[in-house]
Design goal:
single chain; mainly alpha; 2 domains; three-stranded antiparallel sheet; 4 helices; 3 strands
Length: 149
């Protein structure tokens, strides 16, 4: 019996292998791959429920792997293999919403428009994070001044 963490690692490896081959990774293909390798429950008791459960779990695991390529990933959590050689933050691939749904696109296959949009998203996140930190500091100052009164 294969461990769930092994399957998660398998998904991550599949994504990186496809990225290294300069291929777009489509979420439905990723889910189908997991189910075809680990979804054989034909003839077992509770087959219908088992298939449903496996589809849900495979979908969840694949989505977790895709999220690693999202712009809101904490910089501390980024694997070095996901950063483009010679760069500090630029990723080898990004998750993008395209006509066929959420996909992971190697950076060299991203359009200039997609990359510009991603840069804009990151700038908005940066502005929001800065405002958030300023509000926390203002709150601390307020608490400190009310404690000394």
């Amino acid at each position: 019996m294969i461990d769930i963490n092994e399957i998660q690692n398998e998904i991550d490896l599949e994504i990186m292998t496809r990225i290294n081959k300069h291929e777009v990774v489509k979420l439905p293909w990723l889910i189908q791959g997991v189910l075809s390798r680990h979804g054989d429950v034909a003839g077992s008791a509770g087959e219908e429920f088992a298939i449903y459960s496996m589809q849900k779990q495979a979908s969840k695991m694949c989505k977790n792997s895709v999220k690693k390529f999202s712009q809101d990933e904490s910089e501390d959590e980024v694997s070095p293999q996901m950063v483009l050689a010679g760069m500090e933050q630029l990723r080898v691939a990004y998750s993008m919403k395209r006509e066929d749904g959420m996909v992971i696109v190697p950076i060299e296959l991203c359009t200039l428009k997609e990359l510009a949009e991603r840069a804009g998203q990151l700038e908005k996140i940066s502005e929001s994070t800065k405002k958030h930190s300023e509000e926390i500091r203002a709150y601390i100052r307020g608490m400190t001044s009310s404690n000394t009164a």
